Amino acid sequence: MTGDKLSQTFAALADPTRRAILARLASGAASVTELAQPFDMSLPAISKHLKVLENAGLIVRSRAAQWRPCRLEAQPLKGAADWLEDYRMFWEQSLDRLEDYLEELQGKGKRRARKH
Amino acid sequence: MTGDKLSQTFAALADPTRRAILARLASGAASVTELAQPFDMSLPAISKHLKVLENAGLIVRSRAAQWRPCRLEAQPLKGAADWLEDYRMFWEQSLDRLEDYLEELQGKGKRRARKH
To answer: Quick one: which of A62, A75, B13, B38 has the most CB atoms within 10 Å?
Structure first.
């Protein structure tokens, strides 16, 4: 039951190294060696992360050039964003409630200040 | 390196049962038994999913009522949506490219039709 596309996307994003790899690829294609550089990780460890991203359809590895550049494939991210969008009213509501509460606190503070 | 908040949110969302539980809670608080009903799953299996959602801060279980209702806590979803937002231009670009390609194909189709 976890093989569905959306689960695969979210699972791929559930790791800071994989998110950092995507962030790097947002500024252009890169080789595995280039992608490995900022991390204190072995090439096989990075390759494992790339495999997860590739299986989730979030990156594509070109077979054209010998350095086999990886590039970002953002479409699955749209699916994730669309799913989250349905919940926007809930987090906006809870921010509103927090704002109301802070205003109420400020109001109380002002009333207290006036008393002195 | 996977204990960070955002990774925990994405990992919690990487399962269709857990996403269905959140969708159910979007229409109001529910007990564990109510949440288990639509799934062909044992109560312990559902409880395990609820624990993952609770640890990710996506649900809160009230201790006030005896039936201990669960309710949705949407704030972590905002973090996930904010992260994805940075990539919006990439998936919109790729949709644009697809549109251009389809228009080009249609154009070719028209030219071909005119020849006959």
So the answer is: B13
ipTM of the complex: 0.82
pLDDT above 60 for B58: yes
**Angle B22-B75-B80 from CA coordinates, rounded to 5°:** 85
Residues of A in contact with B83 (CB under 8 A): 13, 19
Mutate to test the interface with A, among B6, B27, B77 (most CBs of A within 10 A): B77
pLDDT of residue A1: 42
Structural contact between residues A10 and A46, judged by C-beta atoms closer than 8 angstroms? no
Over residues A71-113, the pLDDT tens digits come to 999 999 999 999 999 999 999 987 777 778 788 888 876 666 6
Distance CA A72, CA A30 (A): 10
The residue behind tokens 């949407």 is B74
